[in-house]
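Appendix B, record 7
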Amino acid sequence: MVFVEPAGLGERGRQLWRESLATWSLTPAHLVLLEEACRVADRLELLDSIVRAGLGGVNPDVEDFADIAAVLAESRQQQGAFKALLAEIRQGQKGSAGPASKQGQKAGGSGVADLSKRIAERKRQAEG
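C-alpha cells (predicted):
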C-alpha cells in the first residue's frame, strides 16, 4: 500500500516519514502518530536553528539569553513528545525486521495490534 506524504512537512519530517514507512508496517492509528512525530521533528529542527542563531554572539545580553532559555525549554518539551510518539509507534507496529519486534513476538507482544490478536485468540478458545 502506498501512503501519501503529509502536506507541509519539512526536510527532516519527510525523511522520518519515508524511512519509517520503509521500516515499519503501521496501523492507520499509528500512521496518524507518525505524521505528528514528523511535524514534531520539523519543529525540533526549527527550535535548534533558533538556539544556534541566538548563541552565535560572543557576548549575548541578558534579554537574549532569557529568550534562548525559553526556546531551550520548549525544545525539551518537544523532545519528550517526540520520544513518546516514537515509543508508541514502535510498540504498535504490525511487522518489522528489527530485533525489538522479534523480541516482542516471543514475549507475547505489547502493542495495540498484539493485544487485539490475544483478545481474539482468547475468544476463539472460549468458544471452542
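Remarks on this record: The radius of gyration is 20 Å. Helices lie at 11-23, 28-54, 62-92, 99-106, 112-127.
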